[in-house]
Amino acid sequence: QVQLVESGGGLVQAGGSLRLSCVLSGRDFSGNTMGWYRQSPGKQRELVATITSGGSTNYADSVKGRFTISGDNAKNTVYLQMNSLKPGDTAVYYCNANLWVGTTLRNYWGQGTQVTVSS
């Protein structure tokens, strides 16, 4: 059974930093893509950043230069280092995994972790 477990959220002042972690179990990160999305009240869930097991990354324009996504294939873990946080970054952050299961690409979500940035 595939499971994604996030950790690292919390309350931080504007300008501060947080690091989120997401551990994948039940499947290997190798050969797949994982990432982070976020959703704030009244808004749609939006992409933050993704990373392939080969290290290719993609970022939303709003976080470029402030957030860094990284992965550890051996630990099946993906991280999101968030620096220079702004109140607008306040949201529930969800870990996402697109995993090949045989010839089928399946999408999985974590339970979410709250990030609150105070002004």
Low-pLDDT stretches: none
N-end to C-end Cα span: 40 Å
Give me the count of strands.
Answer: 11
Average pLDDT taken over every residue: 96
| Estimated structural class | mainly beta
How would the global form be characterised? Answer: globular
Radius of gyration: 14 Å
The largest sheet, given as strand count, sense and whether it forms a barrel, is: 7 strands, mixed
Helix percent reads under 10%
Order of helices and strands: EEEEEEEEEEE
Compute the number of helices.
Answer: 0
* Percentage of β-strand residues: over 45%
Give a verbal description of the structure.
The protein is mostly beta strands. It contains no helices and eleven strands. Strands 2, 4, 5, 6, 9, 10 and 11 form a seven-stranded mixed β-sheet that branches. It has a four-stranded antiparallel β-sheet with strand order 1-3-8-7, with no helix packed on it. Strand 9 and strand 10 (104-109) form a beta hairpin. The termini are far apart.
Secondary-structure blueprint of this entry?
Layout: E1 3-7, E2 10-13, E3 18-25, E4 33-39, E5 46-52, E6 57-59, E7 67-72, E8 77-82, E9 91-101, E10 104-109, E11 113-118
Parallel strand pairs: 2-11
Antiparallel strand pairs: 1-3, 3-8, 4-5, 4-9, 5-6, 7-8, 9-10, 9-11
Summarize the structure.
The chain has no helices and eleven strands.
Q: Main traits of this protein?
A:
119 residues, mainly beta, seven-stranded mixed beta sheet, 11 strands, globular
